[in-house]
UniProtKB/TrEMBL annotation:
Domain of life: Bacteria
The species this protein was found in: Conexibacter stalactiti
Membrane spanning stretches: 35-53, 105-126, 133-154, 185-212, 219-236, 275-298, 305-328, 334-361, 373-394
Keywords assigned: Membrane, Transmembrane, Transmembrane helix
Lineage: Bacteria, Bacillati, Actinomycetota, Thermoleophilia, Solirubrobacterales
Protein name (database record): Glycosyltransferase RgtA/B/C/D-like domain-containing protein
Amino acid sequence: MTASTASPSQPAWLAALQARLTPAPVSGRATDGRLYGGLALLAVVCAALTLLYPSTPTYDPWAWIVWGREIVHFDLTTTGGPSWKPLTVIFTTLFAPFGDIAPDLWLVVGRAGAFMAVFLAFRLAWRLTGGSIPARVIAGVIAAMALFISSQFIRNMTLGNSEGLLVAFTLWAIERHLDGKYRQAFALGFLSALLRPEIWPFLGLYGLWLLLIDRDRRTLVLVVTCGVLIPVLWLLPEYWGSGNFWRAADRAQQPSPNSPAFADFPFWQVIKNTWPLMLTPVKAAAAFALVVAGWQWFKHRRDLVVIAVFGLAVLWICEIALMTQAGFSGNPRYIILGTTLIAVIGGVGFGRAVDIASALVVRVARGGKNANWLAIGTGVVACVVLLAATYHWAGPRFRSFGNLDRALRYQAQLRIDLDKSLGKVGGGEYFAQCGQMATGTYQVPMVAWYVHRHTNEVGLEPGEHGSVVASRSTGAAPWAPAGDTFPWGYTKLIEQRTTHLYSTCPAKPGSVAAEAAG
């Protein structure tokens, strides 16, 4: 049974409720699923090509990569790392048997999610705008551009964070919902729920709605199975790795010093931090699209989807703010799903402005045989004008990519220098055999990966005997741990631009460092 077909055995009240809850189709027919498959394949290809650029994961992804290797060896330890995310570790567990290339395989997945998010932002804005081709094009370009240049999007996605996947799966779920493929939409929402727990309330409500409108046995099995798997995949591995079902929640309530959780009113601080993440023209266009959609709904019962997507964005941002008020970290990257949805609606606003301009010009010109060409020409001119008008706000963000490039190359150099340095002293496992391992705060999981230790076995302070990876987390940061604080007996074995190796033990006989010292 399809989601829009009532069963003859249904009570009258349920059939009536189903009719009210089932949305009218947004377009004449559902999108061919192969389109999304093609976009996903293109996203993976683009992500793989980015490995030609110097690349490295950041703190959280390195921990997921370490945990994937530990699961393969049935030796999971999650203490001393970030919060657990089931879907990310499913991927890194699959990649663990590939050894040294496992980190790069994860980067392909994380970056593919970011590319897919940009593609689907374009696609959803195009779809919701309707109207002329120029209007749809400007809507899609604005939505994709607003996401692409949003604060920290490129940095976070290049370094392998999971928010790109979260946005991609959520936008994909909205697309499939609009196509009338409700079970597929729910399954995609389930994948999002394995990345952030804030998705759970939305998915739960959607699951209840789906059960009300579709009494097919397959729907019941899907909703119940996913409902069981979510707590199982979030809690049981944490209990295995730490002995605490709630370690992920406990870890999330240990925010960094600059977190809005420490503000006098954390909820309002998150809202204030969110406001500048979106370009001013995009926010204004989103407000315009909302007004137009409200009028269309009032007059013709149309455009409810635009209002609903904007409402989802506001609810998401408010949920993050409420959780920050409750003591969670409120990291700006958690907001990105909400700002992406607003970017989509902003794109719709730009598109509607193009169509309105075209209609006004045609009306003033009194139509005629050239009305279609006049409308298209006006639309193209309006596209160019609107894009040019955003440059004042978008230009500085594009120009900031030079500094971002230098920062990302430096982060990649940290990984390169560590790998080379360990190779020169006889390898990571040999280096770690000397005793206690220590490194800087932000390098713990990366060092743990290269020396084959658990993250909780890599500390921040050198022991009486042991080895140290001293590095500078950014080009302007101090060395950590600082060499002048080491106990007596440590010798500098290797000195690289970003990384120094110290140990109370000599380098492995026959290694480059041992021969240089000899």
